[in-house]
Amino acid sequence: MSSAAEQETRAAQRETPGARRETPADQRKPRGDAPGRPSATAVGRPAGHRTTAVAPRRDRTSAPAAGPAVLPGSPEPLGARPCRGPDGAWGTNFALWAGGAEAVDLCLFDDDGHELRCPLTELTHEVWHGFVPGVLPGRRYGYRVHGRWDPWTGARWNPAKLLLDPYARAVDGDFALPAEVYGHVRDWPQQHVADTVRDDRDSAPYVPKGVVVGDDAAAGAPDEWTEDRRPKTPWAESVIYELHVRGFTMRHPGVAPELRGTYAGLAHPAAIEHLTRLGVTAVELLPVHQFAHEDHLLRRGLRNYWGYNSIGYFAPHAGYAAGGTRGQQVGEFRRMVRALHAAGIEVILDVVYNHTAEANELGPTLSLRGVDNRGYYRLQQDPRRYADFTGCGNTLNVVQPQVLRLITDSLRYWVTEMGVDGFRFDLASALARAAHGVDMLSPFLAVIAQDPVLRRVKLIAEPWDVGSGGYQVGAFPPLWAEWNDRYRDAVRDFWRGTLPDARELGYRLSGSSDLYERGGRRPYASVNFITAHDGFTLRDLVSYERKHNEANGEGNRDGSPDNRSSNCGAEGETDDPGVRALRRRQLRNLLATLLLSTGVPMLVAGDELGRTQGGNNNAYCQDNETGWLDWSLLEDPGWRALTELTARLIRLRRAHPVLRRPAFFSGVARPPEGLRDLAWFTPYGTEMTESDWYAPTTALGAYLSGRELPQRDAHGAPVSDDSFLALLHAGPRPVSFTLPGPPWARGYELLLDTAREEQHAPPGTLLAAGAPIELPERSVLLLRALTSVDLRQKTE
Q1: What are the catalytic residues?
Q2: 141, 139, 143, 131: which is closest to 91 by C-alpha?
Q3: How much is the pTM?
């Protein structure tokens, strides 16, 4: 790098050192701006602005060698695709959408890191493309995109920065964030204008490269993949298990150390055995798209653990691969999917298409910003700034055709070539934003609704973002399920004794018809959850009333203070046997409530075995024992019993269609006996009235009738089931509860009592209809309603 004195004397309009020779700027036709507008200079100010400063520049002697000859190739498909050239020889076709660019260089890297530059001279419909003979799978590459530097109009092209192909199917190398990877001079003394000063240092030594992946490597062995059978679990029968690929097996004693924390580790029989023993039907994987770590975390010696910082929407995150990162991660991911499918488990990906790891105008230039900043991101009225509806610095501009194509191409790729069964869309409201706010007729939702591949998979929205009007729970169209945070809040409030009346709880336990019945949606549009990756674990929910996020290095300012939790009498871990017993009972109550509710239940990995994060409710940067599952908990009989209860509740749900109804309850009394498909009872054994719903309560009963369910089996025959009475009591003292008599039941069989520590087998106790029982404090009882015939058989 040259001296500061030499830098100050350089002309602002010099071409970037090492770049190929281009048409002089005064002979180019301006693209996307007013005719004749002067290009911004390397010092970051267009003509007419006051401040001038020169950015650091690379030494000219570091210019790379010219690459091999580039044939015209094809603009389709986008990305790097190995194929045969016009003479039949193998090579790779490269295609990059870069709408406003003036030139594009393909940069090829050998195993020693030496760079060869190949100008892509063919431009078709804003796609730069070319075929390079002899480039085969495993070759690393990137792009340098040339154009104007004019941050005041949103133009941030900088060919000194090596860019990751947005369509790269594998990524090799780690993202470090030294000053060289920023398109602007990150450490410019005047920080308020730092983003306007172009940094001309080469970023190639510091950024990962895309990897050419062959279709055979992407598809796995064809004879293996064609034998894959998707489970295709109906929505109403689904039980989702949210897990982290790395955290699930990092401490698993049954997984070989070299496989822990990887796709291969999750595919290991020991890992899958736990999932099948529980009985879950789908895993929802925290982000597995290639992601980068934030600068503020790296400076504190931390890493992004959750992965909500995507930079490569086609590439499995290389850090989770056991077998290599030169394309091997693709096959390893697919083998994981096959293993899960073979066990009857679907794979749902948590995807982050709302923003990227490039952050705001002060963030690094890694991919889309350098390809076409204005084409990919939403910019404010001052186009130097980014519109931020995500809280992460930027928002993808999904109304742009090329952005829609990027997202939908990515989604289809993961379905058709990687085998996944659905997606959970992080901050989905940001994707549904049109020109004037969130719109359920937005281009993104319209494209998904008509897509013959995507409309067939499971689609789950996180129905909010951080912008105005972003909270959209209940508003997404048919085909979509939603994370139902109102379910979470109502159940937490009920069990900590702060629910003001019974109305909210009644709606949430019965499928949230007030939110989802309109528009032809079903109860399974509600993904019911009590905990998720962000927030307290289930154990911490009953152990802490305040967040304890000091390990994150942000002074405990991060994470929500609204946890709706109760510590049961002591903050954090305690030796008090009374507090410990109450906490375990509350865990049983929460799990029973979740798995007996109408809708789709979602568990978080480890909640069934008492996992704790020590009160950290925002462990996004805790890639350590705080964030990983502690499998040694299963050695504790108490936590082992909780796991067994969870599995038993899932088996009960699977065995009884009345507990997983695909249609909403009507609540209408049907002749001749006046039975309802759903009836609510007070502790006096009487049906709840209007005034009861508006009154505070700690105890209520829900009767679910299994007669004449609104569904038919595959042969068209009507489906019927047992009827059940669920009793929930959140109060601190026992209450007398009169069990409903005829016509509801002639008697009852006790199946579940969360007041009991052990739940190995149904208690089998028979209870008289119309008679009072003592309902234990803070407990859930599940009773099977018996007819006269049932009662006679039980007593004979």
Answers
A1: 426, 462
A2: 131
A3: 0.92
